[in-house]
Design a protein that fits this description.
The protein has helices spanning 2-16, 19-31, 59-72, 78-81, 102-114, 134-145, 147-153, 162-169, 173-183, 192-200, 220-228, 231-238, 254-262, 295-307, and strands at 35-40, 42-44, 56-58, 74-75, 91-97, 119-122, 204-207, 244-246, 267-269. The protein is α/β, with parallel strands linked by helices and 311 residues long.
Amino acid sequence: MQAVTRWAKPAADRLLRRPLAARAVGRIGGLRGRGLALLWHRIGPDGPRTHETVRTVATADLADQLDVLGRLGDIVPLGELEQPQPGPRPRFALTFDDDAAGHVEHTLPLLRARGLPATFFLSGRWAVGDGPYWWELLESRIRSEGASNVAAAYGLPRDADATRIAQALTGTPHAEDLGEVARRNGPPPMTRAHALALVADGMEIGFHTRQHPSLPTLGEHEAELAVTVGRAELAADLGVSIVRFAYPHGHVDDRVAAVVRSGGYRSAWTTRKRTVSKGHDPMMLGRWDLGHLPLDAFRAALLRGLARPSP
């Protein structure tokens, strides 16, 4: 069965490269009222670097991806995607996570030039003077000490790359310790002026917790604090209403989803590859992190997502 699957995926991708097949899949997805929410984190002119735990997507690559989305379907606000409606074309929504200056410096000009809406899930760390996220401190160590030495220091295999190291530390006391040091060192990764620039261009702001913990590792009271503390302050600081939530690291379970629901959010977003379809739990909606893929693979992944049965 695995051999069949390995053969079938490349064959399907070749088929989906054909314009007629691509249009047919897109039309079927639209008529079914299906849509996809896309997720990006960092955007920058030079693309990814080896010390990064969260890979940067090159600005030129994001531009190409946005244009592919516009040819395949309609790019709509996230709130509109939450209301599935049959139509002649599938619908896509754009989301960006974390406090990052690149949202304004590199992403916003691309959105503005195309007249596209997007939702930015922010932490608002600047309001309390917090510095970088914990994994940004980890990246600094990897850049200066080398991945193999940092991996060994944490008892991990020396061949672990930056991404594997960060994944192994997520939700552990090591991440908490790094977070405490990072909060007290260095400027915040995004300023209030950056966030206000997003608002001025009509972008929606969602909440992503202030400290970016893995919520399922927290007790119920700690989880309640994580999904609420900082939300009202961020909304007041930017003069917006915040009704959507993104789970840090995409980590969620039923208990955490219930906590977020009780917090009064309209929707909450994971990193699970799920289409947005009628009847889905609004606290367990999926997003597709595809920005690292080559353009042909990016396009094929979108079409496969629209075509496959919705989980």
